[in-house]
Design goal:
Elements (H helix, E strand, L loop, with lengths): L5 E3 L5 E8 L2 H16 L6 E6 L3 E4 L16 E3 L6 E4 L3 E7 L9 H17 L6 E3 L2 E7 L13 E12 L2 E9 L19 E2 L11 H16 L1
Parallel strand pairs: 2-3, 4-5, 10-12
Antiparallel strand pairs: 1-2, 3-7, 4-6, 7-11, 8-9, 9-10, 10-11
Helix pairs in contact: 2-3
Length: about 230
């Protein structure tokens, strides 16, 4: 599956791009094969950019009650960190197959680096992405909406992060909402959080394309993870 067109950046990381909608099981199988080759010293690190058909995935902390409509879309056990999330057309999935043996073997630091990468990428479109204690992922404060009943600003999630490690090689990764059908998130409690919503680049009023986002991801990768 990772035989799709790729480029190699200045740090030796291969960037792969897949057109169309990639079935989830096929993507997981391809990632596992690539991780094994990286661990064996037979392949370079890789970033894989793709889209999935509409589906839900359950991370290792997923609670059954958070799957509200189990028959709506296929549900897959992801075995990555995190809870339930949605993938579908209009969402950029960024699978990161990176060698943490050469990056410090610090999982928390690595997740912070992924968050910083997303935040720097969003800044290219003048979006202020933020992180919150106890909530993995990247959030956007909705100053265009009324305050909550408690007087707090409303916040929406724009990017989810969930990784898995095998022999200190990462896989799974990031999903960034470009223009997915946001109503599809209503079939789950996204990442187990009920008091906040979900947004996308287009929902925020920005006519950003996948190509635009991919260019920004490439441009801001080195400063966060290079």
């Amino acid at each position: 599956m990772l035989n799709c067109p790729f480029a190699i950046d200045q740090n030796g990381v291969e960037w792969h791009y897949s057109a169309g909608l990639i079935p989830y099981p096929a993507a997981v199988s391809a990632m596992e094969a690539r991780v094994a080759r990286i661990a064996a010293g037979e392949a370079a690190e890789a970033i894989w950019l793709l889209e999935h058909p509409a589906l839900y995935t359950a991370g290792t902390s997923a609670k059954p009650a958070d799957l509200i409509t189990p028959d709506r879309f296929p549900v897959f056990e992801a075995r990555r960190g995190g809870q339930y999330t949605y993938h579908g057309p209009g969402q950029r999935v960024v699978y990161v197959m990176l060698d943490l043996n050469a990056r410090g073997r610090d999982v928390r630091c690595f997740v912070r680096q992924l968050e910083a990468w997303v935040i720097a990428t969003l800044a290219e479109f003048n979006i202020r992405g933020e992180i919150r204690p106890g909530r993995v992922g990247v959030w956007v404060a909705r100053d265009d909406r009324p305050l909550t009943a408690s007087g707090a600003r409303q916040e929406d999630k724009i990017a989810a992060i969930g990784i898995r490690l095998r022999k200190w090689i990462s896989f799974h990764g990031i999903s960034i909402n470009v223009e997915p059908e946001l109503e599809h998130f209503s079939g789950i409690v996204p990442c187990g959080i009920t008091e906040h919503g979900v947004t996308s680049l287009v929902d925020l009023g920005l006519p950003v394309t996948m190509d635009d986002l991919d260019t920004a991801l490439r441009r801001r990768f080195a400063e966060a993870l290079g």
